[in-house]
Fold:
Amino acid sequence: MSGISLQVSVPFCSFRRAYAREFLETERFPPPATVYGFLLSLVGEEVRQTHIGTKLATAVLKKPQVSRVLRTVWRATKRTQQPGTGSNKRPDYQEVLSGLEIGVWVAAGPLADRLRIAAERPQQIERYGGLSLGESRDLVDEIRFQPDLTGTGLWLVAEETGEHALPVWVDHVGSKGTRWGQFRLLESLLSEPPLDDPRWVSICPPD
Structure:
């Protein structure tokens, strides 16, 4: 069967930059690993390894607004104090995106087939919880399958000298098993890229 495309709208979200500490900066677009996790959640797949090798392409359709918020972060510095009290909490500034819209293209394969089932026969999909793009708070508002997209978008393009280092596969236990990729942004027409195009990203762990 062929691939599938989606238009995804998220009211509020944040994609923390890897080395952000005191000031939690966010990328202006979701990393490939985040998009992959969202797609797995959409079809109710709990095992990340099930669709290793899936090829994704992502474009920002609408640039989000960037806000800076002050939040309280819990930490554990003193065992004698309760979590979130005294020195076990601190203020942090965080960047938040609002009004993000992205287009996602999934190349032909098992995951694309399952997404097509989600679009045409959603009653066959078994999943639980909210659908998020990233953290659980970053809830998705709307999904359109096979949207009629026109104009241009800001594409994520794999390039060794690209200025954006983004996770393609995340090791949730440590950092050793995380696979990173270098990317740049390219404004181009919103149509499915050719299969040999660098806008396609293969989702897989490190060799």
